[in-house]
Amino acid sequence: MSQDNGKLIIRLEKIARVYKVGIEHIRALDGIDLNLHENEYVAVMGPSGSGKSTLMNVLGCLDRATSGYYGLDGHDTTKLSDSALAGIRNERIGFVFQSFELLGRLSSLKNVEMPLVYSQGGWFSRKKRAREALDRVGLSDRIKHKPTQLSGGEKQRVAIARALVCNPSILLADEPTGNLDSKTSESILELFGQLHRKGQTIVVVTHEEHVASHCRRIIRMKDGRIHSDMPIEEDRISQKAEEGNAK
Length: 247
What we know:
By secondary structure, the chain is α/β, with parallel strands linked by helices. It has eight helices and ten strands.
């Protein structure tokens, strides 16, 4: 399933990822076909070992597929060098992690500036873009604060600002509310909703149905394959039917 409108950002064809563990070969991804379009808001779900984290790593160019085709913004990433992939990660993909991954000795502003270190433009341009990113996540009054001076929700907002500062084609969030209480989680999900409404493409890996319910499309994985791929409304109907059949 994919949107019929909007620019095609990601195209996966027969993507496989095989790991060798001793004499055994583990097929973490087994022939994934997937299209993602501009301004989609997608949840990737599945039990432990389903392949959802491996898929996230491949999408984020943190790991290479063993075989298959991965096109990002029309570029065949399977033929790129490691340095070129690093450039793709920095310029086209924004990452948000469960554990925030902020540098404790740096202010919020400096943390957000980090992806811009090798970008064109001087320090003034970097600071301006970092300030704008922090303003987008509602933290313009926390630019001088270090991580130890921020709440969990504020840390995650800084992490989201850092992910957005390069204007990425796609935002990848791995269990983004995993370390947050329910109230703070809701505020982060509302922020994702605001970003989506303004045009940002977002993919969230989560095991929480509540988090997935904020998305517009649900991809469910099982045994390294896509088990289902539906708009949120159809997914709800499908899940209810499965629950009924299980009783």
